[in-house]
UniProtKB/TrEMBL annotation:
It comes from Nonomuraea longicatena. The keyword Transcription applies. Keywords: DNA-binding, Transcription, Transcription regulation. Gene3D superfamilies: Tetracycline Repressor, domain 2 (1.10.357.10). Residues 28-47 bind DNA. Residues 7-65 form the HTH tetR-type domain. This is TetR/AcrR family transcriptional regulator. It holds the Pfam family TetR_N. PROSITE patterns: HTH_TETR_2. InterPro entries: Homeodomain-like_sf (IPR009057), HTH-type_TetR-like_transc_reg (IPR050109), HTH_TetR (IPR001647), Tet_transcr_reg_TetR-rel_C_sf (IPR036271).
Length: 191
């Protein structure tokens, strides 16, 4: 019974954290505990710091998003085309949680946020490799740099939308066009 209560509390805390941090990146532990229907002591019993709570919420959201992005239709497309579709899908998921990712950037730092994206970035890397092998993705840039560029542009788009410098409705298209111009073999300079 105690274990079941603990699991329910953890689920409630993570759900509340997701909701509140997705609305307000500065949501406090007290606000999250209240929304979860638990006390701060209970919350801190499961998550010893705000950072550990934000980390756990982000890990959960990324795992759920990765399941959504596991699209079998991508396997039948050329690598570059599959990558553009994956980026567009990723943007839709990220856009719904852009404030949560801002909270994570603030609480955890860029390196930890990047570590949490290991699985989705493996998908990106595989599609880039496939596109490179097919001749559609540039090979004159290091693969690791291309993966980092996709990650940086996705998160940069979220920051720009949040700051109202990029229209939310246009962001997905801007993101895909930006990556196409950066990564497509046809955009490679001559020489």
């Amino acid at each position: 019974m105690v274990r079941a209560d603990a699991e329910r509390n953890i689920a409630a805390i993570l759900d509340a954290g997701r909701r509140l941090l997705s609305r307000d990146p500065g949501a406090s532990v007290a606000e999250i505990a209240k929304a979860a229907g638990v006390g701060r002591v209970t919350l801190y019993g499961h998550f010893p710091s705000r950072e550990s709570l934000v980390d756990a919420v982000m890990a959960r959201v990324i795992a759920e998003a990765d399941e959504v992005l596991d699209d079998p239709a991508l396997a039948g497309l050329p690598g570059a085309q599959a990558l553009w579709r994956l980026v567009a899908s990723s943007w839709e998921v990220l856009d719904g949680h852009s404030r949560l990712f801002l909270a994570a950037d603030r609480a955890l730092g860029a390196e930890r946020v990047r570590e949490r994206h290991t699985e989705p970035l493996r998908r990106v890397e595989a599609l880039l490799e496939r596109g490179r092998d097919e001749g559609d993705i540039r090979t004159d840039l290091p693969l690791s740099w291309q993966v980092s560029s996709v990650f940086a542009l996705l998160h940069g788009a979220a920051v720009e939308v949040e700051a109202a410098r990029l229209d939310r409705a246009e962001a997905g298209g801007v993101l895909v066009r930006s990556l196409e111009s950066l990564l497509s073999a046809r955009s490679r300079p001559a020489g």
